[in-house]
Amino acid sequence: MSEAASTRTPVALLPSLSPLLREWLPRQRWFAGKGRPVTGFSLVAAAELLPVDSTGPGLLHLLLRVQQAGQAAGKATSAGGRTAGGKREAAHGGDCYQLLLGVRTTPPPYLASALIGRVADGPLAGRTVYEGLHDPRLAALLLERLRTPGRFGPLRFDRAVPVLGGLPARVLDAEQSNSSLVYGDSYILKIFRRVYPGINPDLELPLALAGAGCDRVPAPVAWFESDAPEPCTLGVLQPYLRGSQDGWQLALKALAAGRDFTAEAQALGRATAEVHTALAAALPTVSLSRPQTEDLATAMNERLDAAVRAVPALLPYVRGLRTAFDAIAGATFDGDGRAQRIHGDLHLGQTLRTPDGGWSVIDFEGEPARPLDERREVQPPVRDIAGILRSFDYAARSHRPWNPAWAARCRAAYCDGYAEASGSDPRTEPELLRAYETDKAVYEVVYEARHRPDWLPVPMSAIRRLAGPAG
What does pTM read for this prediction? Predict the structure, then answer.
């Protein structure tokens, strides 16, 4: 592969693109800094994946650091209460984003919705730039790069198995924090928009699971990374599970039809346990010590304090919610009292039911808003379990009339399935399970208050239950 990087000097390129990007970036769903004005850019790395000339489209790959008003290089608190992550990212001053910009003299009409704007001056003067993933020719070029391992300027392409070529590409519109391309019915390429130094868990963990022989997670086929200024994961190509349905939609359909969902929930519990067991075998685990559970409780209480400041409706329930966190402070656990690598953001929408009836787990990136170092820490498996239990509650609450018995049956069946496959029932440590479910519900209250106020009654109903004497 060619070692050629961008032939257009970054010194001239960035100022010419800045006015357009300043308007375009905040409108993108994956841009994390909404509500704060963009004050500047710095170019981290640039490469011309397809040179810009007068005969056809060009493709620019940029890693761009974005400065915004009110941005502070603060510390992030990990799930264990320690300061973790964020420090390396914040030290650079601003979030780093991955952009793939198409360049044409006159874009065809079908790219109208992808346009960013016409460049007024600089090396691209008179040309139009646009979101390159929407251009079939440029999307096909990206697949070709992944088919051929090697370097291209600051980029490094790698693969685990041979990759098919010549497949038509389409952009998935459902992504929120990243972008995805589907190639034919064979592959899906996730492109990380907000990038951090280090390997992304959505590459690291599926690779480890594939090495451990776990088939519950689509194994990475190919991926690409950057070495500038520090190694970071940019995109992962995986098999596309054609004909699969996500667990959230399946649960809603079952509710609408008045159909029982316990068999599916139990099978999903078994699948989750298989993933956790394989991760524990492939990667390091630790036992939760008293200082660690003290840290867990402290971090959960701190998140509760912040949530109350953001959503005063939580105030009447604070005392009851704290009992869930205080119950694990300094405790030791014999059952699931271990910490290991986990999914980190597991809910029904991160699961797929394949046409053969099996369950797959996807999207191991963790919570994208959290620092990468924190997402890669070991954590109790019960955190993932609590995420699914909350998801069943969400599904039941979204249905009219509310069906709490349906959620209770699904939650029990899921734990049954998990216990069958792992030999460890999460319900044998109710304090740990309640603490994580409470922590998740507090997070949900803040999220819904900010983004979907109409949904706020859903997590608030869980808050009332969890704050009660029995939790």
Answer: 0.90
Assess whether 253 and 226 both reside in one domain. no
Range of the domain at 198: 10-239
CA nearest neighbour of 129 among 205, 55, 32, 20: 20
For 431-453, b/e burial (b = at least 16 CB within 10 A) is: bbbbbbbbbbbbbbbbebbeeee
Residues 151 and 286 in one domain: no
Tell me the per-residue pLDDT of 95-110, one tens digit each, with 9 for 90 and over: 999 999 999 999 999 9
Confidence of residue 8 (pLDDT cuts 50, 70, 90): low
Residue 95: the pLDDT is: 92
Per-residue pLDDT for 81 more than 70? no
Tell me: do 182 and 318 sit in the same domain.
Answer: no
Mean pLDDT of the 10-38 span: 91
User: Is the pLDDT score of 350 beyond 60?
Assistant: yes
DSSP string, 260-280: --HHHHHHHHHHHHHHHHHHH
Please state whether beta strands 115-118 and 178-183 pair in parallel, antiparallel, or not at all (unpaired): unpaired
User: HSE (CB half, 13 Å, CA atoms) of 10?
Assistant: 13
Same domain, yes or no: 335 and 373: yes
Is-contact 145 152, C-beta < 8 A?
Answer: yes
Angle value at C-alpha 442, between 325 and 437, nearest 5 degrees:
60
| Number of structural domains in the chain | 2
Q: 446 with 300, same domain?
A: yes
Is residue 5 assigned to a domain? no
Percent of the chain residues topping a pLDDT of 90: 80
For residue 224, is it within any domain? Answer: yes
Q: Are residues 181 and 252 in the same domain?
A: no
User: Are residues 227 and 202 located together in one domain of the fold?
Assistant: yes
Residue with tokens 């524990």: 280
Question: 171 is written with which tokens?
Answer: 């952009």
Task: Name the residue among 176, 171, 178 with its Cα closest to residue 192.
Answer: 178
- Same-domain pairing of 222 and 258: no
